[in-house]
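Below is a filled-in request sheet from our internal design queue. Each sheet records the structural input a requester submitted and the sequence that came back. We keep these sheets so that new team members can see what a complete request looks like end to end.

REQUESTER: design group, bay 2
PRIORITY: normal
MODE: inverse folding
CHAIN LENGTH: 144
BACKBONE (tokenized):
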């Protein structure tokens, strides 16, 4: 795990590293902070082979982009254990970084950003999924 640029969250991993941590640590949880539209139309990670499920809480509303004011409260209720690793994912790592910072400020000790996200960075043609990310790493996922 790469160290964070500052002490505002626990660090950053790739999608593949996140999967390895989820496999190795039964207490680790995956929190997807994309929008309901993304979950339904783009897909969600599938943790069924690990006997677990992804926790989905929107960081921002679609289509307004307004931040979810209940995010921390919802995450605290849904995740429970503030000492367990929480691997936070969005499309490409920006929203999830902000969410990891918010979780850390709320007392989560191991809020870790998945830097390449579910779809990853855009390629030269403006398409996602061809360079990095959960889908590119061929990790388990399902469509809405």
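RETURNED SEQUENCE:
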């Amino acid at each position: 795990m790469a160290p964070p640029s500052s002490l505002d969250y626990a660090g950053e991993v790739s999608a593949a590293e996140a999967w390895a941590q989820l496999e190795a640590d039964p207490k680790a949880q995956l929190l997807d902070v994309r929008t309901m539209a993304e979950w339904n139309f783009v897909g969600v990670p599938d943790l069924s082979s690990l006997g677990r499920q992804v926790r989905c809480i929107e960081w921002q509303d679609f289509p307004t982009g307004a931040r979810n004011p209940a995010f921390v409260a919802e995450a605290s209720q849904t995740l429970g254990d503030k000492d367990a690793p929480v691997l936070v994912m969005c499309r490409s790592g920006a929203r999830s970084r902000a969410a990891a910072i918010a979780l850390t400020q709320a007392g989560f000790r191991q809020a870790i950003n998945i830097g390449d996200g579910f779809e990853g960075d855009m390629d030269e043609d403006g398409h996602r999924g061809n360079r990095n990310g959960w889908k590119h790493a061929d990790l388990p996922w399902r469509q809405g």
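SHEET NOTES:
- The two ends are 30 Å apart (CA to CA).
- Residues 11-139 form a domain with the Oxidized Rhodanese; domain 1 fold (CATH 3.40.250.10).
FILED BY: M.R.
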